[in-house]
Amino acid sequence: MKDNLIFDENSYTVEMLELEGKNLVYRAFEGIRYLNRPVDGKMQILSIFVPEVFYKGGSIGAYNLKNAPIFFQNTVGGYMPGPSERPGRNFMGNVNASFEALLHGYVVVSPGVRGRGMKDKSGRYIGTAPAAVCDLKAAVRFLRHNAGSVPGDVGKIISNGTSAGGALSSLLASTGNHPDYEPYLKAMGAAEESDHIFAASCYCPITNLDHADMAYEWEFCGINEYHTMKFGYPESGEDKPEITSVDVCMTDVQKQMSAELKHQFPSYLNSLNLKDEEENKLTLDEHGDGSFKEYIISVAAASVQKELDRGTDLSGLDWISIQDGKVKEIKFDGYIAFRTRMKVTPAFDNTAMGTPENELFGTEDLQYRHFTQYSRKHSEVNGELADEQQIRMMNPMNYIEDKKAEKAKHFRIRHGAVDRDTSLAVSAMLAVKLRNNGVDADLEYPWGIPHAGDYDLEELFTWIDGICR
Ligand code: DHB
């Protein structure tokens, strides 16, 4: 049979780009099909970008055409489709990570992946879970299939993504070669190769969705006002979206659900059997207090300390006690009030449906489904519950202990200190479970950062250079 998944080294353009005084010359291989039988031929393509100097026998730092790490960047947001992206500016007008990564000497691979809301010609949904992660896996397999000819080192694939994209990055990195995904990859005609990766950068992973509602209420129960922003698409002639604020108080029914969900969290958390670096158990009592909460506080305290060390005056924040330039105490309730609540209860599996996650767990012909027993039981729309296996395949926590899943060696997880899109517990549970299973996982809650990604590329690249050495 003819192999259609061969990388064509001769099909490229050379591009020049100057942004903010920095000049980049790169080779662009675009519109590459990574599947034999794509479901959507326009979205399921990838691009490869390479510093042009590599083709002149040159190098950037320690990197050249053969050994450069592959920065595998997804653009998924809100679990919507994430198209392949060129170096340039992002939707907020900022220079994107691909541009900076090329300047730094990485090969950039940008796969387009399916997401919620996508339909085929006959109106069937084609981007529901686990579509996006299967597409990422197929793109990785394509690179490995062409290991001898693609630029960069396929042994050093580092995935990067933010929010839903950060969740996918963590999922891709936790589930390498797991048989659960095999039937989907086979059906689309993915290359028969390994799909494990070397490392993952995950900004605010909106993950562990089936326990995210209870984690959210563990954190925010008692805070009954929620504050969020509505993004309108840019009007023609404008390059930035219109942003309006929404401030609402929860109803009595929602407050009751908040208390019930909060109450469910400790038994889930305790079932994970997490331990800190000194092998102390991380647990919660029935009130939601205990060593796991102290652990979250310690991560927050490290973030505050880093900011103090930069010389920032934080004396106006009454939930932080500081003595001689050192953090002495963080009051959890004060910190959470400072963060503020963003989402109404239940934050992800809404009883009235309509969240990005309800749509993620839809089917070919059903737009929204529930994915927790709790919201199914309290459904205001008599919604269906998603299949167990579909829910399972979207949660990296299910694969970390599973020997059949080849894990990435390194994870870098960041959750902004004032990012309220999901609970601080979600990133912490992921990082600690990885560490408990022998995986290197670096976790921080960077000070002052809201829901965002790619805001510390210098630090990210230093981390990548360190693990690739
Ligand atoms: C994203 C943000 C959310 O709050 C969410 O529930 C899902 C995805 C995002 O920005 O990708």
UniProtKB/TrEMBL annotation:
Keywords annotated in UniProt: Hydrolase
Name the UniProt record assigns to this protein: BD-FAE-like domain-containing protein
Superkingdom: Bacteria
Tagged with keyword Protein transport: no
InterPro entries (alphabetical): AB_hydrolase_fold, BD-FAE-like_dom, GDXG_lipolytic_enzyme, Tannase_B
Gene Ontology MF annotations: hydrolase activity
Residue ranges annotated for the BD-FAE-like domain, each copy included: 102-193
Database matches in SUPFAM superfamilies: alpha/beta-Hydrolases
Classification via NCBIfam families: tannase_B (NF041556)
